[in-house]
Structure prediction request, 526 residues.
Amino acid sequence: MLLLGGAVQAKQTIIQTFLATGTWTAPADVTSVEYLVVAGGGGSSTGGGGGAGGFRTGTGLSVTAGTDYTVTVGGGGAGGADFNANGAQGNSSTFSTITSAGGGYGTQTNGSAAGGNGGSGGGGNGFAFGGLGNTPSTVPSQGNNGGDGNYFAIPYTGTGGGGGAGAVGGNAPGGGLGNDGGDGAASAISGSSTYYAGGGGGGGPSGGGSGGLGGGGDANPSSSNGAANTGGGAGGGASPGKVGGSGIVILKYQVPASTTIFTFKSTQSWTAPTGAVSADYLVVAGGGGGGTLGGGGGAGGFRTGTGLSITGGTEYTITVGAGGTGATTLVQGGAGGDSTFSTITSTGGGGGGTYQNPGPAAGGNGGSGGGGGIAEPTVSGPGGSGNTPSTAPSQGNNGGAGLYSGGGNTYNCGGGGGASAVGVTVVTGAGGGNGGAGTASSISGSSVTYSGGGGGGGHSSSTVKTGGSGGAGGGGAGGDGVSPNITGTAGASNTGGGGGGGAFVSPTFYAGGSGGSGIVILKVNY
Prediction:
């Protein structure tokens, strides 16, 4: 891209690291990325080492600016229960069109057994071969074969090492010995050279092999798991077996210096662009879940500001809180997860209160408080406190109270608090309380409202049976005390909206909706 006068516009390099499954939003003007995709390593048992997770890396992978991409980070395979059971294959990791296969399992020792196939193959036992690597086939190869077993020298049951991204697993040498896992491969995509996807060492009664470079686990006598977020295979020779290392996905790309907005919809690491000095921010936590015959979930805490000091080239962990679980039994809805960037933490929304006998049927505290429930004989549950812990400016508001009023035929639940308004308290003759409204932000370039509270649930014995509406900003509606809308509606994803409270339609208590996940948006200043 050229500036006026023909000067080339400066580029900034961005690195984002995913240690768990999440979402990446391609920034404006980004059309391709460099990538590293490593799958989970294979689990082990008493025999061969687990194979390393598939290792794939490359440049120039096409992406579309403004598009959300699901990033899947595979978990390591589980260990076998005892000497009769093989370990489990690791799980695949994926970004866009690139999938790396989980590492093959390491074997048991109750008879000959071939290692499992996968990104790299697991080590074999007895007369059997190691598992096949690069399965399914990719170009370049994503891994190597596991080592073969050896049953020809006393004591028997020597086993092979798991294959690694850079080398095959070692074949069992005989004499009851296991061999080493294959070494992994190095990548400098993160800014420093790091090895990933080493194979696990093979076990044996006379001693096991070492794990391959890149997180492979050692075999007996000190069998170990594959290292987390390396895709290393688990070391063999243990009962129960060991667990393969989880995978990792790293993306590296360039943006023009004019690109300043970065959106994060899941937890990940982010390296600030060179020359960055501060950031304007929006940090929204996960919304609380609605209660069963309960109050609406409180919205996730909403914090925004300008000029937060950051350092170019520094890696920051960005945490995006999950929505709280909607209650399915007579318990308070789950609290939302906190969201964090640098020194800024927004607190998850409080869960909605539920029906309790005796009370208190209260909503939970949080960024915004959950709405109150109801209880026999005449208990009106209070709403939870918002802005907890306290921030300035306030990150949220209180939930509304429920109402149990036999004389007024009103048995409905309160609305969850929102970022800009309290949840509505139920009054005689009214339905469930509405969720409090959220707050709008234009940091993304357009005005979007976040952190609305969930609506409270209704009751079939009330004169007005309707549940409360969700607050603007992703709040879910409360269930009605009459079919068909009887369960609470979930809060909208990446808004921090609270989940709606569930209803009661005699004789059944209905579940609340889950809260919406949070979001972090940064506008970088140079």
